[in-house]
Amino acid sequence: MPSMLEKLYYGELMPDCRSMEKASKYRREAEALAAAEKVLRETLSSEQITAFERYEDAAFHCSTIDTMERFLYGFRVGLLMGLEISEIDDKYIMDVTG
């Protein structure tokens, strides 16, 4: 069985990708967002649509950066927790494992 690092390397583990379940809160919000965008595009002038598209691009980039930074932070915290656990005296490990 491949290790988690091997899965990550070969693209078998993609923490940023997930499918949307039909009844999920995320999917409902994504559909509401798409409906609101459709209304805006139908009512805004071409100049306003251009400004809105610039806003969407900037918001997307901010969200992408934030998501990556949160992922890295979570990964680092998990790694530090693992290192801290690995430094525990064998005495304590034996207490937990019996």
Can you walk through the features of this model?
- This protein is mainly α.
- It is built from four helices and no strands.
- The longest helix is centred in the C-terminal third of the chain and has 41 residues, at 46-86.
- The protein is elongated, with a radius of gyration of 22 Å.
Low-pLDDT residue intervals, each spanning 5 or more residues: none
N-to-C CA distance = 28 Å
Number of helical stretches of at least 4 residues = 4
- Share of residues in strands: under 5%
Order of helices and strands: HHHH
Main sheet? none
| Oligomer description | single chain
Percent of residues in helices: over 70%
Structural class: mainly alpha
**Anisotropy-based shape:** elongated
Mean pLDDT across all residues, rounded?
Answer: 85
What is the β-strand count?
0
